[in-house]
Structure of Endonuclease/Exonuclease/phosphatase family protein:
Amino acid sequence: MKIVTWNCNGAFRRKFNFIDEFDADIYVIQECENPTETGHLDYIEWAQNYLWKGDSKHKGLGIFAREGISLELLDWTNIYEDNPLKYLLTCRVNSEFSLIAVWTHYNKSPTFGYIGQFWKYLQLHKSNFKNCLIVGDFNSNSIWDKPKRAWNHSEVVRELEEINITSLYHFEGNQTQGNEEHPTFFLQKNSTNLTISITFLVVQDSETT
């Protein structure tokens, strides 16, 4: 199964056809519109099998699957100490594995923005992180770790590795967190030398599953 993730930077209704060349089974798209509220007929037709969440119909987090693939929304709370987390969308794919789609957000939280949002989600659901893929835009890198902060990027990576979940990018490419050779973030078609979109997956006996 091929899974592609992309932060489309909005207006996905005008861009979705560009990613068809990847011929993926599942697309995890950040900053995309809710298809049913766009009025864009081609986009609606393309998005026949999807899950979506967001605060605005113009920009949210979507999981789009090929016809015949089952996406079962999982009832995992996004509320941490009465505060909603942004944005995490979790589903069961073909009753085989859990897919956790990620687009971390500032969420008006100077303390727990971006990676802090995912760290809170991890604390809520760590026991459920079994046979799962965590895919998306974390807006984070260990180069932005801060002293004495428990929810740094590096701490999240460490907590995931404790339950045998590791970054596919770093595992396959033999890359070091914070010293990546190949960026995943491009601004106006230009490389920024930042790696902030990552896929984490369960690793067993030193082989990916």
